């Protein structure tokens, strides 16, 4: 589970990557962590996938 500093770090990394026109992609997160990111609505900002295969498939479409 993330605390506020962990969430802050993810947002900081997301912003830096976005400035470089790159994307932060997360996968294989625990249900607890996915739920936490959803509750604070970071799932709307971040790309979250269940598996690496899903990530690769998203780049091919």
Features:
61 residues; mainly alpha; two-stranded parallel ribbon; flat
Unreliable spans are: none
Helical percentage: 55-70%
Please, how many helices? Answer: 3
The N- and C-terminal alpha carbons lie at a distance of 32 Å
The count of strands amounts to: 2
Kindly estimate the percentage of residues that lie in beta strands according to DSSP.
5-15%
Alpha carbon gyration radius: 12 Å
Q: Would you tell me the structural class of the helices and strands?
A: mainly alpha
List the strand order in the largest sheet: 1-2
Largest sheet: 2 strands, parallel
**What's the SSE pattern?**
HEHEH
Overall number of domains: 1
User: What global shape is seen?
Assistant: flat
Look at the structure and give the mean pLDDT. Answer: 91
Give the structure's gist in a few sentences.
This protein is mainly alpha-helical and 61 residues long. It has helices at 4-19, 31-39, 52-60, and strands spanning 25-27, 47-49. A two-stranded parallel ribbon has the order 1-2.
How would you describe this protein?
It is a single chain. With 61 residues, the protein is mainly alpha-helical. Helix content is 56%, strand content 10%. It has one domain. The chain contains 3 helices and 2 strands, in the order H-E-H-E-H. It has a two-stranded parallel ribbon. The chain is flat and about 35 Å long. The protein starts with a helix and ends with a helix. The model has no long low-confidence stretch (mean pLDDT 91).
